[in-house]
Amino acid sequence: MRLGMVGLGRMGGNMTLRLLRAGHEVVGYDRDPDAMGRLGDEARGSARAAATGAKDLAALCAALPAPRVVWLMVPAGKPVDDTIAALLPHLERGDVVIDGGNSNFHDTLRRGEELRTKGIDFVDCGTSGGVWGLENGYCLMVGGDDAAVGRCEPIFLALAPENGYAHVGPTGAGHYVKMVHNGIEYGMLQAYAEGYEILHESKLFDLDLHKVAAVWNHGSVVRSWLNELAERAFAGDPALTDLRGYVEDSGEGRWTVQEAIDIDVPAPVITLSLLARLRSRQSESFGAKVIAALRHEFGGHAVRTEK
Coil, strand, or helix at residue 260? Predict the structure, then answer.
């Protein structure tokens, strides 16, 4: 089928290429000329389908047969709202807009209702797979009306590996499931991080973390794709000397913690994993300084001063 792809960055560009390989036709748009150039290269390298670039969103919509399908891969928040607003004058009743980014499900519910009043279906697709998705496929958690999702199913089947796509509920459900998925990811990453740090700091043993990660990936109860990536990372630099321990978050961990609070579900592991990420961004913690000062005041405990 022929669809539009708005946002041809690291994820959108690879998804476009996977769709081309599956025989779909893609009309792409990105504000970055370099991204548009890469789309042209992908089109020339595809023997079974065509990719074309659009100069703007109006041209993209004009190049799609009605009813249209337009997939958005843009940053969450205002960029999604701005893109939808720019698309609306060029869309018609029966068209489908898919948000494949990491949007807050509250925003998705609002957008779905707003578009529904205009006769446009809004499908949310939680997308997992990262830079490996091009070759391995993307895990897709899809929310939306049955008919709209059914129309778009050939796209989902092309992007996902076998059994890697599920229609999980109405509009908003896809991003809700993806939010919790990422919250779980926070906890898993933190557990691996703490375990490997204990091994790295051992006073008794000089452990080869690459060897440990490798053996854990064969029959261990903690084997996983994440640990396979740990094995890969330690292969090049077991001490990770070239990396700084600064960890960003995309927002979904925060949203998961807030949702847990809102529905009275205790989620201590995910919550503490989020807080650990915040701590990683402090070169020097003022709170730790306060603790050191108070321990010195009440107990005369030694403190370390700035040099």
Answer: helix
End-to-end CA distance of the chain: 65
Residue of 178, 231, 252, 259 marked active site: 178
- Alpha-helical segments (H) within 201-285: 209-216, 225-236, 252-262, 268-280
CA 241 to chain CA mean position, Å:
26
H helix intervals, 117-172: 133-136, 146-159
The pTM of the whole model exceeds 0.70: yes
Q: Let me know the angle formed at the C-alpha of 267 by 128 and 191, rounded to the nearest 5 degrees.
A: 65
Judge contact between 92 and 115, C-beta under 8 A.
Answer: no
Judge contact between 44 and 20, C-beta under 8 A. no
What 3-state DSSP class applies to 46?
coil
Across 142-157, average pLDDT: 98
Strand order across the beta sheet in which 69-72 lies: 51-53, 25-29, 2-6, 69-72, 96-99, 121-128, 139-143, 165-169
Mark whether 185 is an active-site residue.
Answer: yes
- Per residue in 89-123, pLDDT (tens digit) is 999 999 999 999 999 999 999 999 999 999 999 99
- CA nearest to 19, candidates 162, 201, 159: 159
239 vs 60: CA distance, rounded Å: 48
Whether pLDDT at 49 is above 60: no
Which residue in 25, 118, 153, 185 is the catalytic one? Answer: 185
pLDDT digits 0-9 by tens, 164-216: 999 999 999 999 999 999 999 999 999 999 999 999 999 999 999 999 999 99
| Residue 29 tokens, joined | 């748009």
